[in-house]
Amino acid sequence: MTDPMIVSGPANDIDSLRQTLIAGSIQVQQQIISKLADLGNEGLDVLIEFLRKRSDTPATWIDGKAYQVLYNSDAPLAKEFLLSSFPEGIVPLKSDCGIDYHPLQQLLASQDFQAADRLTIQKMCELAGPAALQRKWLYFTEVDSFPIIDLQTINHLWLVHSEGKFGFSVQREIWLALGKNWDNFWPKIGWKNGNNWTRYPHEFIWDLSAPKGHLPLSNQLRGVRVIAALFAHPAWK
Which segments constitute the GUN4-like domain (predicted)? Predict the structure, then answer.
């Protein structure tokens, strides 16, 4: 059902869309951003103004949605704005280990979730050290030593660029809501169907039609211990 706020003015009334984008609910804002994406430079100007006004507050997935429209646009004004205002992306790329998360932000902004998932595992192996990087997977004991800020950066990137559907914190909330029951958790996030585990990569869903919490995979092929360690990490306290 269309929100009444959206039809309060003509569909191409830029001022009306601008006001609704600022005042509307999250669901309304999501629809407005999609409308603005189809209005050329006028629509891009509104999104630029929207992000500029919100630049002093932590990015939400609504900011991520607006950013993605600009990021995937060929318009010079969009490229110039992002280069000057968000050269690394909409999410600040903080790291206590000097790890570069810019490539991960680029993949997520492009909605290439499969490549982003692979890179997420690689970045976590970088956090764990040279041995993990060489073997390309994690021991659960290595997760405990992950810096809080790095894990929060990775999680924030997934949240902001997935309309709030993906991320370790999302998975953890679902797990907690299910009473920490793994047997109920796996099918809830689409990692298991009946007695059958979802096969990598072709049975996983690499877009926003996936169940909430479906991504990232967090080394799920190696059992419960890595993801249990992630959920127990102090980053979420």
Answer: 95-234
